[in-house]
Design goal:
Distance between the termini: 59 Å
Structural class: alpha/beta
Bound molecules: adenosine-5'-diphosphate
Radius of gyration: 24 Å
């Protein structure tokens, strides 16, 4: 059979949640594919996606770009190889979708219709995660820009199915249990800019977790602790979560100030327990936010608690024998305030600066946070990226939310709050305009 092996790369910012795979023209030709055709993607599992043409910079790189959902569906990570072939897709008679475990979703009465419109002409394989974009367009969903992962618990027929107008789509509110995939979590597509920073974190964290033998062969120790430093709201937490999610590592989070104050008298024990759990559930990532607060410089220390917590943290890190399988990522806005003892070799000995995004980064972040929004044609993200000099990711996120709220206020007079349903025709008309962004910017 005609098939190729390609390396998995992350999706373009705008592609996330759309079930798209990007291939270059050579590969398309080789597999006799046209844009819009359906392919099978075989990793540890097999899923399907719709083919689009890759941008020129990706030609002849032997890569396929797919988003985090498709990667989970194929059970592969970025940099791993998958087999691609043309799929024999059959029309889906029926598709049953349910939220994954622990997620609760409430669907409005027309939700099945809206979901179907979103996933029309897309391929689905049973057990796939099917991301459904939430947006101001979809009142049953939470916050805009976020894809809600649903699980295809049943398809008729089996195999690769294509959703058509005639497909009967059924939504269940009852979460499905026993599915390993959750579709949840942050993926690299959720991070704008920071390309080389992501690459460095991946080398330091993903590589030793996935291939510890590389390090032992070369006789070098994989890193134990990585310190991310930079201004607040630039994506340090986001990056740590993405790495954990993409490596399927367990994620443990410690808020620096909290461990000092909340567990008064039990801080050290708390820390010990977290490290023990992380070891048990390894590979794991322990994320310590505001590391400077847990470990102020020795000369600054007035409180006995901090001193003891620092000592405990050092003991735990020095005592980790499973090198590479438990990695501690610390974050701080004030790298100079971190206890120097923590920055010695074998501890937080790798540092990555996470800076304020440049214009290209800001555009990517804008794309990410407007993904699910119905934008009017007069909104130019290029223009907005140019106008938001100095904004960090968190600022851009607030800006897009504020713009959506402004749009909503425009439609409020038309909404009868006593009625149970908002008329679908109104919902279809709702858009976020350039003025909404300008208004949000001047506040
Ligand atoms: P930090 O840990 O650096 O203080 P966070 O990672 O907690 O910042 O960022 C807060 C929020 O801001 C994130 O949840 C995300 O919505 C947004 N954000 C920050 N940086 C980025 C980025 N580079 N790309 C996309 N969104 C971002």
């Amino acid at each position: 059979m005609n098939e190729v092996q390609l390396e998995v790369a992350k999706a373009y910012p705008n592609d996330s949640g759309r079930g798209i795979a990007r291939l270059d023209p050579d590969t398309l030709l080789h597999l006799k594919l046209s844009p819009g055709d359906i392919i099978e993607i075989e990793g540890a599992e097999t899923t399907a996606a719709k083919v689009w043409r890759a941008d020129r910079q990706d030609w002849n790189t032997d890569t396929v770009r797919v988003d985090g959902f498709t990667r989970q569906n194929a059970d592969v990570g970025i940099g791993e190889r998958v087999t691609i072939r043309k799929a024999e897709a059959e029309k889906a008679e029926k598709l049953v979708l349910a939220p994954p475990e622990e997620a609760s979703v409430q669907f409005g009465s027309d939700a099945a219709g809206m979901v179907k419109r979103q996933i029309l002409k897309r391929p689905v394989v049973e057990r796939d995660i099917v991301p459904v974009m939430s947006s101001t367009n979809h009142p049953f969903m939470r916050s805009p820009g976020q894809a809600i992962p649903l699980i295809a618990v049943e398809t008729e027929p089996d195999g690769v199915c294509l959703i058509t107008e005639d497909t009967e789509v059924e939504l269940r509110e009852e979460p499905i249990s026993g599915f390993e995939k959750t579709g949840g979590g942050i993926t690299y597509e959720d991070i704008g800019g920071l390309q080389s920073e992501i690459q460095r974190v991946r080398e330091m964290v993903e590589l030793p977790m996935k291939h510890p033998q590389i390090f032992s062969k070369l006789g070098i120790e994989p890193p134990q602790g990585v310190l991310l430093h930079g201004p607040p709201g630039t994506g340090k937490t986001l990056l740590a979560k993405a790495v954990a999610n993409e490596t399927s590592a367990s994620f443990f989070s410690i808020a620096g100030p909290e461990i000092i104050s909340k567990y008064y008298g039990e801080s050290e024990q708390q820390l010990r327990e977290i490290f023990e759990d992380a070891k048990e559930e390894s590979p794991s990532i322990i994320f310590i936010d505001e590391l400077d607060s847990i470990a102020p410089k020795r000369e600054d220390v007035t409180g006995e608690v901090e001193r003891r917590v620092v000592a405990q943290l050092l003991t735990m890190m020095d005592g980790l024998e499973t090198r590479g399988q438990v990695i501690v990522i610390g974050a701080t806005n004030r790298v100079d305030s971190v206890d120097p003892a923590l920055r010695r070799p074998g501890r937080f000995d790798r540092e990555i600066e996470i800076g304020v995004p440049d214009e290209v980064g800001r555009k990517e972040i804008l794309q990410i946070h407007t993904r699910g929004m119905p934008l009017s044609d007069d909104v130019s993200l290029d223009h907005l990226a140019d106008e938001t000099h100095g904004f960090v990711g968190a600022d851009i996120e607030s800006l897009t939310k504020e713009a959506a709220m402004k749009a909503l206020r425009r439609y409020l007079p038309e909404i009868d709050l006593d009625e149970e349903e908002v008329p679908p025709s109104l919902i279809d008309r709702m858009i976020v305009k350039r003025d909404d962004f300008s208004g949000a910017l001047t506040e």
